[in-house]
From TrEMBL:
Pfam families: TetR_N (PF00440). InterPro entries: Homeodomain-like_sf, HTH-type_TetR-like_transc_reg, HTH_TetR. This is TetR family transcriptional regulator. Residues 5-65 form the HTH tetR-type domain. Keywords: DNA-binding, Transcription, Transcription regulation. The lineage of its organism: Bacteria, Bacillati, Actinomycetota, Actinomycetes, Micrococcales. One of its GO terms (molecular function) is DNA-binding transcription factor activity. It comes from the Bacteria.
Length: 179
């Protein structure tokens, strides 16, 4: 049954849910239309093409998994407290198939957006480390390693590695960045 009216936000919500569940490859017009009980015409009323919808999904990913985390970390007081808050927030996030975004980005035309978000993440962490007294170049290197560690852990979660359930991993990662 076709729904009377499917809004732009309905399309974005459905696409983002598909992305989190199965990666960017799941952001496809026909399956989303079926799931929404909408027509492809409804989709094209709101978006020029699939790439426009993918751009909206990546924008939401940035908002929910970067902006919100930085805002949460900024609620802390000292640079050390903000850094601890950042690590705790990142550790608590469920990223599921969104972990594939770094692998899928170029194939789906969002590589530039992923690079921009990655630079924001590295810059934010490096800024905290500089506030804690680290040399700016060393702070940047440590920030790159920290992000690479998170991405590696995300990939390992996809294969359900049991060692990742250890709650001390976050404290170990933080200690390594601060060492």
């Amino acid at each position: 049954m076709v729904k009377a009216s499917t809004s732009r936000d309905d399309w974005i919500d459905a696409a983002y849910a598909a992305f989190l569940r199965d990666g960017l490859g799941a952001v496809r017009v026909e399956p989303l239309a079926r799931a929404l009980g909408a027509t492809k015409g409804s989709f094209y009323w709101h978006f020029t093409d699939r790439a426009a919808l993918v751009d909206e999904v990546v924008a939401r990913w940035e908002t929910e998994q970067t902006d919100a985390v930085i805002t949460l970390a900024e609620a802390g007081g000292t640079p050390r407290e903000r850094l601890e808050g950042l690590f705790a927030a990142v550790a608590a996030m469920r990223r599921d198939a969104a972990a594939l975004l770094y692998v899928e980005a170029a194939a789906h035309g969002v590589g530039d957006a992923v690079v921009r978000v990655t630079r924001r993440r590295i810059d934010y962490l490096a800024g905290l480390l500089v506030e804690l007294g680290q040399d700016p170049d060393e702070a940047r290197r440590r920030s790159v390693v920290a992000l690479a560690t998170v991405l590696g852990i995300d990939q390992l979660r996809l294969v359900r590695l049991p060692d990742l359930a250890d709650p001390a991993l976050t404290a170990t990662a933080l200690a390594m960045v601060l060492a």
